[in-house]
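User: For my dataset I need records formatted as: sequence, then structure tokens, nothing else. Please produce one.
Assistant:
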Amino acid sequence: MARILAFYLMLAAAPVSLAAQSVTINTFQNTVHLGGAGTVTETFEFPDDVSGYNQVFMHIDLNCPGVGCDPFDRVARILARKDGQEYEIGRYVTPFGIGTCDWTIDVSAYRTILTGTVELVSSIETWSNGWSLNLDFEFVEGTPDFEHIQIHNLWHGWDSNLQRDYGGFKIGDTLWISDNLPERKIDLSGQAEKVLVRAWVTGHGQGNTENAAEFREVTHTLRVNGATDFEHHLWKSDCNSNPCSPQNGTWEFPRAGWCPGQDVKPADFDISDLVAPGTEIRLDYILEPYLNKCSPLYPDCSPASDCAFGTQITCNYDGNLHTEPRYIMAIQLILMSNAPIQTKEVLSDTRLTVSPSPTSGLLEVALTLPGSGLV
């Protein structure tokens, strides 16, 4: 009896490991996306205090509405709007021809945005039938590595100076020598302990020169303070390793940063060792040069030699096998610290443009300065 009692006393004294508790916030539920951009916007309530959570997961459950699923692979984006700003927090591509699927995306970096009242935007391109979406957020209890996180959009949405949208940034336009993104300048907080640049970039459009931008393998460049370069190899070659498989069509073909039926993995660049807190930093994202000769704007375009398929009658876009080459970009600066972060962001929009290109001998040069017109 004494041995049995001792055994139970040992059990009572042994440390007990408890699994982390989680809280689930249900947002879009059976929300139907139909027609064109298929965009739905709603407001939801998240935890007021997220300091006790170290992980946040976004669970995506995609189904078919009553009219049936869109049979094609479509780009889908989840954006959060908070305090007058909009941030992309997740991107995925619907599967090719099989309809339903689900994904889980780690959105822990956006923990301090997903608090209180938040407006969420779900956008799924759809031109045939549609989609039904369930979207839930799981907050997992734990001590976060950094108490404070601050997000800055570097290249996102509409750029009034460029008069272009980073959410559909057409490339290879023959009115430009290159598609230059404006350099950004940021007065970095003296409290920043970890500094990341996160690039959500995917290439779309086909039938163009080199079959850009969906099927053109490229390497873009992130430049820090005009000196140090990081390569961003925009190519996804593991499309056959897929939670939504098998699919129809060309789902196994490599693509520029995405695959049908996969969530998009952003590229994270840790620049903490290259910048000094409390100083100004300069960031530049440089697209690999590209000239689209299979364009209605390109002089003497020859479909047989300038276009990817060589069977087109003209160089005009047809919305099917020949669509405009473009990137969908949302590039962010993420600052992390255990002390409150105070950072003032300064955007530099100086750019030089030369037109037309190609030229017959006469060039027009224009310089755009921050906050000004053409000089």
